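re the bet — no i am not wrong, look at it urself. input seq straight from the record:
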Amino acid sequence: MSRTDGPAPLAPGELARRLAAFPRAGLGTFPTPLERWPRLGAQLGLGERLLAKREDLSGLAFGGNKVRQLDLLLGDALARGADTIVHGGALQSNYCRMLSAACARLGLACQLVLSRAYDQPDDQGNVLLDLLAGATVHTLEEPLGPAYEAAKARLAERLRAQGRRPYLITYPRSETLGTVAFAEAALETLAQCDDPAGPTGGRRPALLVTAAVGSAQAGYLLGSRALGWPLRVRGIAPLGAEYPVAETIAAAARAAAELLDLPSSLVARGDVDSSAAHVGGGYAVPTPEGLAAIRRVARSEGVFLDPVYTGKAMAALIADAEAGTLAPDGEQVVFLHTGGNVALFAYAPALLADLRAADGELLRAL
């Protein structure tokens, strides 16, 4: 759902001025590329109308969408005098990989609480990079949720009692500042789309598809509406009913609007298009459609997706395109590549099984 009524749109320069007021940590390489994916577009009947916003090329620790968020979150942490960052996720958290590298670059201690609840290996992929970057890694069996967040908070309190100055990355502030970061991404994307010499030919796409549980979708919704760009943002959730995805996104947009001195009514709950139809067996569990989408994008565009987030989001885009419901009016479509490529190595058995089913024998002796 998109809305064009409401407050007068901000000029891009005014939104940029408000965004510039937030402290930054100086992370990432921006703008990230906006490029056409013509071979995949042709396969899906979209021709030249399929584009990708490459947050996987954001320039820190193999890239990903969390770099934008960390630029603001760690800017906030430094402004508050923090010396230690506390956060966590699943063992193969992309967020934690980028956080551990960012802390190393900034001279901050990094304390990670990683959940073993998702049947992920602890000797490769993202967790290996966490350790290489010098993070202190704590593990627990609790899945992500209230009990897990309480464990993070207890660790922060323990560090504070030891005389450290911890900054705990947790809700709601992490989502709020992350949403501000992606309002800036919307501003950046709009400038790329308005460039007549750019990949859109100066046309503004009508639809953006992304894997989303929070700030990326919230920020694009908020930023596009603030600028008067009637962009539909379709979020493909990587988890199901155990987490209130749409409500979280709407709440994050409202909180970020307040920080940016924008009307809180810009993004309502009904504006949040969130689908859990491609979750499959649950969070971090690969789906056949997601694995096929990873293989298809790698072989058509030479770009790697991941089984947890972007593979499932691309599976949704492919399904909608093949059903003729993705862009029925000849619209341009942007796929937001949020990163996660490093997690591929932790899912080698599932990926190899998919490749064998598609190709038969994989390694052929001469």
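see?? The first strand starts at residue 34 and ends at 36. told u. also Residues 173-193 form the longest helix (21 residues). so pay up
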